């Protein structure tokens, strides 16, 4: 697997303009286009806990604030805590002693335990630990209720007199608006009855009162030595945003954050290009349209030392991963003008797609009744031009290279190839099953300095058998299409003369 | 089996509230009592493997890709929900550069396909955490201290104050003090990482009392607090002298040269407001931003204010004797976020958000630093006094 070590030697240009190695791109079988992590739509599929592997549907995860109910993180070093058991002898009434198991939480990395903060040991192995609540929670809910009422009233007022500019607008919401002004003026506050709406007055809220009293600097700060082991680090504080404990005795264990399984969707046809299996224990995918299975792979076999302005031979190996024969051709990269034209064509194509989608969903009655059901217009980003500076020239042989389909059995067959291809032995230097090696000539730029990378690029045209269309349109014959992809190869560094 | 959130009609997906600060980003869900996470506003560069701060962008294009990467992480590593077709509340500073908000809107709408964005100014929504409509809001963050008085729900924009008197100034001051005057650039301490300096600041430094600070400037300091030896990265030790612990924050209160300090910002802002607002503003101060959490900060600011109003510079113009501060139901570093969470938890998110459709039609966001269209006529008059 050359990918592990040289992942960015051969990079493929995605339709969106990103450059990625083959192992990091997808091939949408519906659009017949290359997609990558940047240009697909990511979606959260399911939540699971990395420690106990329990999985939760999204709605339940939301209720639990995307945290695991039974696993905890160490508040000191943020690793996962484990439950430890200890046996204690409990004297019982009839002069016999009974041993009982008690449980506490302990960190295997930093030796923090729940006893450090005075949590009593639990008699059950899981659960039962005290939950810390935000001390301001009830005040915040009061404020929330209050502003909800105000916002609702503003909405109703607006609807009632749409022609007038509302006198009280949203920035008065951040204040107390009418009710407060009346109180100040000494007028009786308006009750729900006198308001001709059905919301009623804002919920009773006591505005915050400012004081002259502030927390004073403790005198002993000037005399007592500071024990840093007792003061929490910034990282520990920010790990618990609502509490931000300053001393270590206030570090309470936090429920472990869940992780997600994510599916990826082609933005243009809304089919999945990657969808994992639901079970958190499984590393398999239900759908995985990796380009590795659809787009011919190119690897460098060898390359002569590269010298500025001089020709060197490079041998690349090309592999056809599909079940069908594929013929390949190579051409130079398009000029900037041609590329701009291609980009605008791509953008135009997308626009048309959006318009078509628009027509479908543009029934007003449906939109009004079921706004959440109608898919919204997809307005994806426009593709960008590939941003890479070439530092070498590549001469491409005008041949058509035919690669047989992949045959797993042939991998173990050493008896030689039965295929009979009319290859030019000067260009195609080696062949085996669905792979072939080809000789190319590279010329680094004249003025390239020693140690710089030589980057060359070309377009690979290949035939692809579209099996999706066969299924959909019930055609007998699989459809043969001509596809192309831009490739950028970082051949190596320039050596001295 | 796909398990979608909020199946059925009427159940809206919980909106997300994001407050992107220069140093830290606070984010979570609208209507919740605290942010889910507070993380550094930075991303790991995929090619070089180096940490890159979002605000170190050199052009719009770079900012765009930094924000895509950063926000992707927010949603999929921390919030764990899909951004698509979900509402967003952005808590932003009134002084936020327009290239930043335009690019942020573009990233959210075009890349993440969110259904709507509501931009709320941090100084205004912070009042939602108090339930009052008038306050002098001082936000001391990483790069700047920004003060905006808000009167009856309307920002008194011409009285705003901004000074680079914040965390960054404190940290470079601390670094200088750790290096010592004679060692200069070559000392080993000049190579301490930024995060270590920050941690030293948070754990060992404090804002000293008004009396002691005066003695220090007069050249007759009281004995300094005990020094601390700080274990950095497990191997090297940094000696933090008591004097550095005590004086790191002094840069915020010193009035050398231009005579600007955090305390004079408060008084200068009050002076710029109409006379009938002044008393109410002085008695409704809201302090927010991580730097105001430093031990002793509030006590010092109060005594500074009480002293400064008696000095000739202010005594002539200001008849104020009493200053009062609010205690919001949150830690100071996420007060603005909580304001956004409360504000975004109401129907306002439906009536006031910029929808995806509207954004696509206009292809830009209404400029909202221009608050004129939001103000009542009489407010405009008073704001222009
Ligand atoms: Zn892409
Ligand atoms: Zn778990
Ligand atoms: Zn630990
Ligand atoms: Zn597709």
Automatic annotation (TrEMBL), chain A:
The keyword Cell inner membrane does not apply. Its main location: cytoplasm. This is Dynactin subunit 4. Pfam families: Dynactin_p62. Belongs to the dynactin subunit 4 family. It comes from Gryllus longicercus. One of its GO terms (cellular component) is stress fiber. Subunit of dynactin, a multiprotein complex part of a tripartite complex with dynein and a adapter, such as BICDL1, BICD2 or HOOK3. The dynactin complex is built around ACTR1A/ACTB filament and consists of an actin-related filament composed of a shoulder domain, a pointed end and a barbed end. Its length is defined by its flexible shoulder domain. The soulder is composed of 2 DCTN1 subunits, 4 DCTN2 and 2 DCTN3. The 4 DCNT2 (via N-terminus) bind the ACTR1A filament and act as molecular rulers to determine the length. The pointed end is important for binding dynein-dynactin cargo adapters. Keywords: Acetylation, Coiled coil, Cytoplasm, Cytoskeleton, Isopeptide bond, Phosphoprotein, Ubl conjugation. Residues 342-358 have a biased composition (Basic and acidic residues). PANTHER family: DYNACTIN P62 SUBUNIT (PTHR13034), DYNACTIN SUBUNIT 4 (PTHR13034:SF2). InterPro entries: DCTN4 (IPR008603). It is found in: Cytoplasm, Cell cortex; Cytoplasm, Cytoskeleton, Microtubule organizing center, Centrosome; Cytoplasm, Cytoskeleton, Stress fiber; Cytoplasm, Myofibril. Residues 329-358 are annotated as: Disordered. The keyword Metal-binding does not apply.
TrEMBL record, chain B:
This is Actin-related protein 10. Residues 216-239 are annotated as: Disordered. Belongs to the actin family. Transmembrane segments: none annotated. Residues 228-238 have a biased composition (Polar residues). It comes from Gryllus longicercus. SUPFAM superfamilies: Actin-like ATPase domain. It comes from the Eukaryota. InterPro entries: Actin, ATPase_NBD.
């Amino acid at each position: 697997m050359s990918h592990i070590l040289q992942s960015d030697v051969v990079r493929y240009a995605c339709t969106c303009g990103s450059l990625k190695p083959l192992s990091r791109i997808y091939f949408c079988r519906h659009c017949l286009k290359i997609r990558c992590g940047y240009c697909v739509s990511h979606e959260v599929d399911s939540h699971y806990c990395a420690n106990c592997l329990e999985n939760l549907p999204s709605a339940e995860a939301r209720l639990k604030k995307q945290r695991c109910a039974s696993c905890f993180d160490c508040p000191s070093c943020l690793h996962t805590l484990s439950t430890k058991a200890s046996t204690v002898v409990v004297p019982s009434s009839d002069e016999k002693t009974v041993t009982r198991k008690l449980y506490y939480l302990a960190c295997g990395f930093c030796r923090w335990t729940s006893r450090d903060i005075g949590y009593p040991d639990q008699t059950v192995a899981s659960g039962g630990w005290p939950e810390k609540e935000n001390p301001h929670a009830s005040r915040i809910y009061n404020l929330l209720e209050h502003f909800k009422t105000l916002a609702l009233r503003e909405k109703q007022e607006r609807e009632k007199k749409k022609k007038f500019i509302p006198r009280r607008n949203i920035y008065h919401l951040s204040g107390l608006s009418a009710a407060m002004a009346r109180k100040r003026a000494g007028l009786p506050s308006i009750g729900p009855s006198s308001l001709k709406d059905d919301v009623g007055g804002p919920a009773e809220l006591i505005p915050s009162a400012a004081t002259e009293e502030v927390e004073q600097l403790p005198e002993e700060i000037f005399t007592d030595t500071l024990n840093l082991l007792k003061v929490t680090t910034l990282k520990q504080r920010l790990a618990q945003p609502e509490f931000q404990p300053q001393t270590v005795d206030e570090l309470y264990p936090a429920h472990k954050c869940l992780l997600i399984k994510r599916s990826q969707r082609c933005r243009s046809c809304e089919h999945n290009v990657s969808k994992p299996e639901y079970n958190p224990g499984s590393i398999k995918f239900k759908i995985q349209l990796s380009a590795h299975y659809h787009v011919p792979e190119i690897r460098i076999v060898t390359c002569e030392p590269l010298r500025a302005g001089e020709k060197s031979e490079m041998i690349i190996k090309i592999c056809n991963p599909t079940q069908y024969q594929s013929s390949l051709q190579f051409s130079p990269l398009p000029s900037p003008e041609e590329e701009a034209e291609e980009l605008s064509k791509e953008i135009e194509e997308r626009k048309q797609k959006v318009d078509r989608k628009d027509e479908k969903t543009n029934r007003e009655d449906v939109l009004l009744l079921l706004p959440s059901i109608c898919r919204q217009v997809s307005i994806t980003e426009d593709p960008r031009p590939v941003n890479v500076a070439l530092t070498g020239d590549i001469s491409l042989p005008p041949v058509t290279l035919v690669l047989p389909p992949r045959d797993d059995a042939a991998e173990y067959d050493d008896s030689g190839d039965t295929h009979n291809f009319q290859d030019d032995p000067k260009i195609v230097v080696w062949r085996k099953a669905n792979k072939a090696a080809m000789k190319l000539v590279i010329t680094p730029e004249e003025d390239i300095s020693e140690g710089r990378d030589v980057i060359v690029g070309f377009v690979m045209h290949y035939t692809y058998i579209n099996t999706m269309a066969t299924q959909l349109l019930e055609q007998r014959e699989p459809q043969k299409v001509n596809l192309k992809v831009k490739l950028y190869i970082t051949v190596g560094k320039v050596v001295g003369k | 089996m796909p398990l979608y959130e909020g199946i059925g009609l009427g159940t809206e997906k919980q909106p997300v509230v994001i407050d992107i600060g220069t140093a830290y980003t606070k984010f979570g869900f609208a209507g919740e009592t605290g942010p889910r996470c507070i993380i550094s506003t930075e991303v790991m560069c995929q090619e070089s493997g180096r940490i890159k701060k979002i605000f170190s962008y050199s052009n719009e294009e770079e900012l765009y890709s930094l924000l895509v990467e950063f926000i992707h992480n927010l949603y999929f590593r921390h919030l764990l929900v899909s951004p698509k077709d979900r509402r967003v509340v952005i808590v932003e500073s009134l002084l936020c550069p327009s290239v930043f908000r335009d690019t942020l809107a573009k990233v959210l709408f075009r890349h993440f396909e969110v259904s709507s964005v509501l931009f709320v100014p941090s100084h205004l929504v912070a009042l939602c955490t108090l339930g009052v409509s008038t306050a002098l809001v001082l936000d001391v963050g990483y790069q700047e201290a920004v003060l905006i008085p808000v009167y009856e729900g309307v920002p008194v924009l011409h009285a705003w104050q901004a000074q680079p008197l914040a965390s960054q100034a404190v940290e470079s001051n601390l670094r200088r003090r750790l290096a010592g005057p004679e060692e200069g650039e070559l000392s080993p301490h000049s190579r301490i990482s930024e995060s270590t300096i920050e941690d030293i600041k948070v754990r060992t430094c404090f804002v000293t009392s008004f009396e002691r600070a005066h003695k220090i400037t007069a050249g007759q300091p009281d004995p300094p607090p005990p020094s601390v030896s700080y274990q950095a990265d497990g191997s090297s030790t940094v000696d933090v002298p008591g004097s550095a612990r005590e004086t790191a924050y002094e840069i915020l209160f010193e009035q050398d040269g231009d005579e600007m300090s955090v305390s004079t910002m408060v008084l200068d802002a009050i002076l710029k407001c109409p006379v009938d607002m002044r008393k109410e503003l002085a008695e409704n101060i809201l302090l927010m931003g991580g730097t105001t959490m430093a031990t002793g900060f509030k006590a010092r600011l109060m005594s500074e204010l009480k002293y400064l109003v008696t000095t000739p510079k202010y005594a002539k113009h200001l008849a104020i004797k009493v200053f009062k501060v609010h205690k919001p139901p949150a830690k100071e570093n996420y007060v603005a976020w909580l304001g956004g969470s409360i504000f975004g938890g109401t129907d306002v998110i439906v009536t006031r958000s910029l929808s995806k459709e509207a954004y696509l039609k206009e292809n830009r966001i209404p400029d909202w630093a221009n608050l004129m269209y939001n103000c009542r006529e009489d407010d405009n008059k008073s704001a222009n006094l």
